[in-house]
């Protein structure tokens, strides 16, 4: 039996009563016990301390004990996918979550899955949509299947929970399996990279990066002139340690600047490095059909001649990210100097006195590492895709299971 047919059979002939989260027959709001505690005043323990989006700490003591759903009161990381958490056993809730649970006729886990599908935006009246008040929360509609038959109602709720929990578990298992495979691939790549870039004394000539390539610093684009469309800017946050993530990009209009911004253009194949911030020392190879532009604190390596293979340089730099980070001073605010980078980091050049033999050997090493890199990246890219597909599958069946007939919302 197909999933859709099964869902239809499960819900066939099911009546529903639409009430709200304020209906005390079915739901308890347990906000009174919430208690915020500053991090400096918390006593370390084994009990999870919940904030708007996740567990923030583990403490001694608790505010609640049982099965509950936590709805962000303010501070949800996303408005479109509003923060809803499921908590069981002893836990501590701060004042950034509403704490609710089902009563005798409402399965709390069913309530959790249902609330994950709710659009909370209409219930965030503030201009900046920053707060879900209790007054607005209790207006949110709530479906109760088979209200005239509590036993059957709870059986239907339990079956819906079983199905949706199974999808959740499958997604978690898939994530764990693919993450383990990704870790193994990365270890394999790192092992062969280190082996291929390890040379015996006399086999190579060690040169500074400044000997074999030039370095281009980025331009100080003004954040107040960033646009939603235009020419893309690559910032330090876009450098992810192997590539350049263009998912979150700012744009600019060249007419806003008197300087020649064209000299800061980057093209496919260019090797970039983050010079400050949390991504300091991370390398990214720009692979895109579009031309983008270097922001300040992003640098570009430019081989001086054909004697240096660009992909060989890329793999070498990946092997030196830790050393580069140390060179930047490490700590909370690392800041990399292009002068220090080009003078202090040494790169091995095989057969330095024979350019033909040297480039052939660099290409051989780069080709091997490229193949391993492709295997690793295929999993890196495939992991979020697979998880997204599972999530969409979960949302599809959740929609089928929670699309009750006659959805007339009860008045508050």
UniProtKB/TrEMBL annotation:
Pfam families: Methylase_S. It is an enzyme of class 3 (hydrolase). Its EC number is 3.1.21.-. SUPFAM superfamilies: DNA methylase specificity domain (SSF116734). Keywords: DNA-binding, Endonuclease, Hydrolase, Nuclease, Restriction system. It comes from the Bacteria. Residues 27-183, 203-388 form the Type I restriction modification DNA specificity domain. Gene3D superfamilies: DNA methylase specificity domains. GO terms for biological process: DNA restriction-modification system. The keyword Nuclease applies. One of its GO terms (molecular function) is endonuclease activity. CDD domains: RMtype1_S_Aco12261I-TRD2-CR2, RMtype1_S_HpyCR35ORFAP-TRD1-CR1_like. Belongs to the type-I restriction system S methylase family. This is Restriction endonuclease subunit S. It comes from Aeromonas caviae. The lineage of its organism: Bacteria, Pseudomonadati, Pseudomonadota, Gammaproteobacteria, Aeromonadales.
